[in-house]
Design brief:
Strand order of the largest sheet: 3-2-1-4-8
Order of helices and strands: EEEHEEEEHEHEEEHHHEHEH
CATH superfamily of the largest domain: ATPase, nucleotide binding domain
Number of domains: 2
Structural class: alpha/beta
CATH architecture of the largest domain: 2-Layer Sandwich
CATH class of the largest domain: Alpha Beta
Radius of gyration: 20 Å
Largest sheet: 5 strands, mixed
Strand content: 15-25%
Helix content: 25-40%
Length: 334
């Protein structure tokens, strides 16, 4: 589209989380210019097909305000990481169970709102792209990246290419069932890995520990327990809190071992809000991988994400710039 205001092209990268959304403004080289945050609005679960029109309108206004604040009246292209089942080709958010979204024509609606081409993919895949491009996975062509936050999912990169799968569901390990678990999941099943390996899951395990009478400092809280509370209790030497992270890490490690045998990554990157727990979560994952893959030379390294909450933005804007450039090149060739 024609540019006005500040010279050069402005691009948007956005990471839509189950709780919060982060928007980044970038120049044509992918260098950051500024960012904004806003709460993610959930769709009305009473509607048969969720339509988050109000959220899209508010998100569009925030993006335009961010661009204007840096002297850009127009946006060249925008990339969005969207939770759940995403059809990149059609630009549809098919099912984001943590947000109540089903069959949302997100790219089409946002493109109308911004007056610019919009490209979407699963948020964890774009997080993976960001970590591979400029984070912990830089220079590694074969890796798995998991994000443990409001939910749990994995991004898979093989030979430098993101893997989406025949039904666009590659990496949805959060909805693989775990023997012995029975808690209800947002997807409608029970006992999914995500019911423990997530911020809400960790908080629920802590509440259960308190109700079960386990000695823990968490019992003194006069409000609902959060995953952050469990982490802080770990730091203070609370054995019950450490047991929760050990249980979650071991369960994750078992699933990741199976995934490692399937795709043979050199590295597993752990990101998302819960990854701030560091080795309280990562070491049990490593320990479980060592049980299933005892040969150290065949075992993928388990490392924390380097870009933290910037990874989704970096991946989203890279995705937007790459697609925008490819389409412009195709137009010039015709």
């Amino acid at each position: 589209m024609a540019k006005s205001g500040k010279s050069g092209a402005a691009f948007i990268g956005a990471d839509i989380g189950g709780t919060n959304t982060v928007i980044g403004l970038f120049d044509e080289r992918g260098l950051p210019l500024g960012e904004r945050r806003l709460a993610t609005m959930r769709a009305d679960p009473r509607r048969p097909t969720s339509d988050p029109a109000e959220f899209i309108d508010r998100l569009g206004l925030e993006i335009q305000a961010l661009a204007l604040a840096h002297g850009y009246r127009d946006i060249a292209a925008a990339g969005f990481g969207v939770p759940g089942w995403v059809d990149t080709a059609s630009g549809m958010a098919l099912d984001a169970s943590n947000m109540g979204w089903k069959n949302v024509r997100f790219a089409e609606a946002m493109s109308r709102r911004l007056g610019a081409p919009v490209y979407i993919d699963n948020d964890v895949r774009l997080y993976t792209l960001g970590e591979a491009a400029a984070g912990a996975g830089e220079g590694c062509a074969d890796l798995v990246c998991i994000t443990v936050g409001t939910g749990l999912s994995a991004g898979i990169m093989m030979d430098g290419v993101l893997v989406r799968g025949s039904r666009l569901l590659a990496g949805e390990i959060g909805h693989d069932r775990v023997d012995g678990l029975d808690a209800p999941c947002n997807c409608g099943k029970r006992g999914c890995l995500e019911t423990i390996a997530s911020a809400p899951g960790i908080a629920r395990l802590a509440e259960e520990a308190v109700r079960g009478g386990k000695p823990t400092s968490l019992a003194t809280l006069a409000r609902p327990i959060t995953a952050l509370d469990v982490f802080l209790a770990c730091q203070a030497g609370d054995a019950a809190a450490a047991d929760i992270f050990r249980f979650v890490g071991r369960a994750l490690g078992r699933k990741l071992a199976a995934l490692a045998f399937a795709v043979d990554p050199r590295m597993i990157i752990v990101g998302g809000g819960v990854a701030a727990a560091g080795d309280y979560l990562l070491q049990p994952i490593r320990d479980e991988l060592a049980v299933h893959i005892p040969e150290a030379e065949w075992r993928p390294a388990v490392v924390p994400g380097k870009l933290q909450d910037k990874a989704g933005l970096v991946g989203a804007v890279r995705f937007a710039i790459d697609n925008w450039s490819r389409e412009r090149s195709s137009e010039h060739d015709e």
